[in-house]
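Lab meeting, action items carried over

1. Structure of the two-component assembly. Owner: GW. Status: complete.
Input record:
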Amino acid sequence: MHDVKPGVRDLGAPAPRSRPSAARRAGRALAPLLWLGPALVLIAVVVLWPVVEMVRTSLLKISSSGVTLGSTGSRNYLDLFDETDLIPVVLRTLLWVAGVVAITMVLSLALGQLLNARFPGRRLVRWTVIVPWAASVLMTALVWKWMLDNYSGLVNRLLLDLHVIDHPVNWLAHPDQAMLWMMWVAVFVSLPFTSFVILAGLQTIPGEVYEAARVDGAGTLRTYFGITLPLLRPSVLIASIVNVINVFNSFPIIWTMTQGGPGHATDTTTTFMYKIAFFDQNVGESAAMAVVNFVLILVMVLLYLRASRWREEIR
Amino acid sequence: MTRTPAGRRPPRLRTVLLTGAGWLVGLVFLLPYLQMGLTALKSGDELNESPGSYLPHSWQWSNFVDVWSDAPIWKNIQVSLLVAAVATLVTLLCALPAAYYTARNRFRGRNAFLLLVLVTQMFAPTALVIGIYREMVALNLTDTLMALILVNAAFNLPFCVWILHGYFSSIPKELEEAAFLDGAGRIGALTRVTLPISMPGVVTAVVYTFISAWNEYIVALTVTASPDRRPLTVAIPSFVTQYQEHWQYLFATSLIGIVPVVILFIFIERFLIGGLTAGSIK
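Predicted assembly:
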């Protein structure tokens, strides 16, 4: 900062203010494009193109070998809505998202509070909470699948030794049990990010606020529900939206643990879509499912934002 | 905050309870990964026992050596590393100027751009995988690292723009203007003043992008075909198929993939909290 060349400053500084020429004005209009250009190109090519391609594909008839056989209008959508599995799969997906996100948020509020409190070894505990975040969801799902193995898994071994069960249970073979276990794994991998967002939110609350509450004689519960929780609103909002999107789109957990089976009994819309495309080789109908999927996410996020009046928070 | 007011007894019970709860939480979060490590050290025969054993009867450290010859995992690690590193670089090069410009200037289309970024965040690769697959077929990019790099770079861009935008907005403009008046120039002010102050944000963005690219699964599963062009995430499940069940190798390889990333993440833990605050509140 100190080795300044005086000449450069004298030449450059006064020009723009005195007379904005046409070229300069054009330059000013184009400047944003220069700075935003790379990001715009990347988004256009890798995000918007597939969106357009997906919608286009959903209106095409494509053979199982991938040859386009022309337009079919709404045929793919009609085929999709004729699938008897569609309604159960959509309902299951909504239950999956609502359940996982609600449990994650409640547990994270507690966990964030715990990680923010002082106790010996707090740093180490924070590190352990990070582990499922850093490890890939795929690998975490794989180890849970192994732990739930009916023949030699740890869960059965533990429950047998504790006499909770008297014979090994094939957890992932029964749709309801499998769904609950997979929801637990989804909560498990969502907790780190969520509780760290809550923790970050807790650290922005100034200590004086609590001091004032204590002087006013507010108890612990009063303080939490009257002060902490309202001040955490932005963090809770952001974390919930990110979780809704992530959990809705969660693919590796169900794909590795049950592959949506038996049949379609544990499918959510994403695994259902994937199976239509790559097992049934029906790309057109799968694209229709993807479009429906996207509309569902959009509706859920908009409803959520509306419910929480986001404009007051995010300008 | 820690000091208790005079006359009140120090809250010992509270500390004991907190410590107990804290360590229990730590154990719950580590348990699956401990199980991973223990399974990786068992022999193939022991894994077929029912019910399974808690600790290995004989500790097979050789499993960690055998995986390298059993499958092309060195190749897979190289693919994962290359894809994650290049994708991170591309993301950063696109996100930095965009985040900086939108944080410092009001211009027509600013809000539209920020909204576009927000909406992009809602498109996960999973939701678009059919479209991505069709695009890559059209561009003749299936089974290439280029496809993986582009996808990972694009889908991590929104998070990076938001984090960096938050950081840049929080730095007073006057600080930069001082440097600018000192003759540093606009780019000079950016690289010498703003960037160093926003380092925590940049580090968070870099590590976050790297890790999510390292862990990406569905696009790699769909777009790659040849075993030596697959990243680690796609290669790992192939240790357990209908024909062979090598859980010990599967988890040995998983740990090889997890440990460096966990260390990287722990390294940014301090920054992370600040980064999340800036990203979520701003």
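2. GW to write a short summary for the group page. Key points so far: The two ends of chain B are 27 Å apart (CA to CA). DSSP finds twelve helices and no strands in chain B.
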